[in-house]
Amino acid sequence: MNAVANNEQRTVRPQPIQNEREREHFIPRVNIVETDEQYIVEADLPGVSKDGLEITVEDNELTIFGRRNDCHEVPNAQVLYQETRPGDFRRVFELDPAIDTSKINAKMQQGVLTLTLPKAEKVKPRKITVGE
Amino acid sequence: MYMTLTRWQKPEQNWTVTPFRRMTTLRDEIDHMFDRAFGQFFESPTQTQLGSGWVPGVDLYEDKDAFTVKCELPGMKKEEIDISLHEGFLTISGERKHEEQKTTGEVYRTERYEGRFSRSLSLPSKVNAEKINATYKDGVLTVVLPKAEEAKPKQIQVNIK
Description:
Strand content of chain B: 25-35%
Structural class of chain B: alpha+beta
Distance between the termini of chain B: 53 Å
Order of helices and strands of chain B: HHEEEEEEEE
Shape of chain A: elongated
Radius of gyration of chain A: 19 Å
Number of helices of chain A: 2
Oligomer: heterodimer
Helix content of chain A: under 10%
CATH class of chain A: Mainly Beta
């Protein structure tokens, strides 16, 4: 296997939009960084609180679903100008098999989701000291 | 919630002009279209590629007592958001900074905006600047601007003889 193909497999990769249902949702903007120990995924989900968030892992697919709260509603008011669009967020990622899915951690702060996806112990790079 | 109300300065980019926003919206539509059609093969354009910068979405509401402005600003600190009012123009500006500790490692995707933004909008009538109130929750900024007394609708009794 060449290096590129290998790299393609071993990452957290957003999946293409597959069906009609997914098109109804917004795709949150994400940053993905890999370190030796883990992957870090950050996603912009303005208007989503901790309670409106659903993160599921099935096989090697991770789904982020963010339901917007009512922060975009002003009771008894009329809309004069609107740029934001109501709707929930959804995005699916294919996970590197090296990720230990039992240790995924999620943090939600001011509409930004931070996921840390640690790699299993056995795949972390190890330093080997050469004996005499 | 306390939030800095700064002296008004001429915005670096004045996005009150709606055609720009329409372009951005159209661009977003195209992004989504490409995402749907090609998925992973196309990266979402970053601000540097298009030079458009960060244009957070703004909504304006009105009820009988106040105007309410909502702005989507995920991942900010409230100290990093500036709100100012000058001659009927409300300006929301700030900067989302890159978090240093996360730069060590291989970066696969950077779709999220960072850097400066500034949005201005013209308020339809006079507001009471002393009573402006702002809250920041779940990455959404809400600014409530109570209308000035003279701008409120008044009931006038007309005696018909």
